[in-house]
Each structure stands twice: as structure tokens, then as C-alpha cells.
Design a protein that fits this description.
235 residues, three-stranded antiparallel β-sheet, 4 helices, 12 strands
């Protein structure tokens, strides 16, 4: 069913704080808490944040897919899929029949089990899709891509990465882009010539969560430049 990316339902501000390694046990998943100057990394499962609802407004049903497996499927065919060709794992349906809203704890617990169930397939897709060396000990949560179908259902495609995430103080939130040239350094991709929000403050690396977030990327800042609205010039 057709769907479109949305930015007003899943709590990306919570998810981006996770230190979630799929290759370890559920109880080793951590979350970064506290203000920028007093950040602490604590176990997630017993933390009060785990009781936070994963969505706003609250949802009792969410469909989850592996982003890498979906991308591998999309790149496997020029037109219609072959009958005996590659198929991604069936989606995970997280649903509370009593109507209770899904919490961060429930989301992480069920997605952790789901991705581990299909770990062999995820590894194959990760080797094909990722521009990074594979790790046998690290497969961390990277980002989530929420989508809404025409009938109102929410689908979350979860993307992983074979390395640990950068500290939250190095997270840049990208929203509505402006034309900008800047220099950054990342372990997996060159970001020169990419785009940032014109409201981005080059004096700070960490920004407040925005409801119009479309991508979160961890980077190391190497050069600051003036950021101007689309159509303007950068000097």
C-alpha cells in the first residue's frame, strides 16, 4: 500500500538517545539522559524513559521492517519481483489488542527480538547496503523512518549500523534544507556539499529536537560556515 514519510508520530527524540546494540542482550541496551552538560548513559529497560509512549498521539499498533532488507529488495529488481527471487522478512506487527499505547520499552523489546530472529538475513542485507566494514560484535540502532499509509497505519523502517553511535553532543538534526557548502568528517561518508537547516546555529553542535526532523546523522564538525536560506550564497 502506498505510504509517505511522516515526522509527527514516532518519538525520534527518544530513539536517537538509544545506545542499542543488536548483538548483545536486551538488558545491555542503554539510553542517554540528562542535559547536555550532565549527560549520563544508563540501562534503558528499568529507566522511567522506557515507560514513555513511543508515539504522539499514542498508538496501539505499529508495523516494523528492517530498512536494509527493504532496500535490498528494492535494488534486486528493475521491474516486477521474480516469483522465486529475494523477499525481505515479513514485517513485525506490534499491537496491543486492549488499546494500550505502545511504550518505548515494548517497542525496543519486540524489535530487538524480531531483528535477532532475522539476523542472518539482516547481515546479508547489511553487507550489500552498508558502505562500512561489517562487525561481528556491533550492530547498533542508527535511525527510524516512520511512514503513514493511506489508511492511517504507521510503518517504521528501522536502520542499523555496524559501529557504535557518536555521542549525542555530536548529533546534527537535519530538517528543511537550505543550500549550503560545509566541511564535515564522518566515519562512513563524505558530507561535503550536503544541506543543513538555515536555522542551524554553527556555534552549537547539538540542537533541540524538531518535529520536522527528516534525518539524524552523527558527525564530527571540522569547519563551520555561514548557513543561508535556499537560493542564497554561502561565503
Amino acid at each position: 500500500m502506498p505510504s509517505q514519510l511522516v515526522d509527527d508520530c514516532i518519538r525520534l527524540d527518544l530513539l536517537c538517545r538509544l545506545r542499542w546494540n543488536l548483538m548483545t542482550s536486551l538488558h545491555n541496551i542503554e539510553i542517554v539522559v540528562g542535559s547536555e552538560d550532565e549527560e549520563k548513559i544508563l540501562p534503558l529497560i528499568d529507566h522511567p524513559y522506557a515507560d514513555e509512549e513511543i508515539s504522539e498521539p499514542g498508538l496501539s499498533r505499529i508495523e516494523v521492517n528492517s530498512c536494509e532488507c527493504l532496500e535490498k529488495f528494492d535494488l534486486s529488481y528493475d521491474s516486477s519481483p521474480e516469483e522465486d527471487g529475494y523477499r525481505p522478512p515479513p514485517p513485525l506487527i506490534i499491537e496491543n489488542e486492549d488499546g494500550k499505547h505502545i511504550t518505548l520499552r515494548q517497542f525496543v523489546t519486540e524489535v530487538h527480538a524480531y531483528l535477532n530472529e532475522h539476523l542472518a538475513e539482516l547481515k546479508k542485507a547489511q553487507r550489500v547496503m552498508a558502505a562500512e566494514p561489517w562487525s561481528e560484535t556491533m550492530l547498533y540502532y542508527r535511525r527510524a523512518w516512520p511512514r503513514r499509509t493511506d489508511d492511517g497505519n504507521i510503518i517504521v523502517n528501522v536502520e542499523m549500523m555496524p559501529r557504535a553511535p557518536a555521542p549525542t553532543s555530536s548529533i546534527v538534526y537535519r530538517t528543511h534544507p537550505a543550500e549550503v557548502t560545509y566541511s564535515m568528517k564522518s566515519s562512513d561518508v563524505s558530507l561535503v556539499g550536503k544541506t543543513l537547516n538555515e536555522k542551524w546555529n554553527p556555534g552549537k553542535v547539538k540542537l533541540s529536537y524538531s518535529r520536522i526532523v527528516t534525518e539524524i546523522m552523527a558527525v564530527n564538525i571540522t569547519t563551520f560556515v555561514e548557513v543561508v536560506p535556499a537560493g542564497g550564497r554561502v561565503t
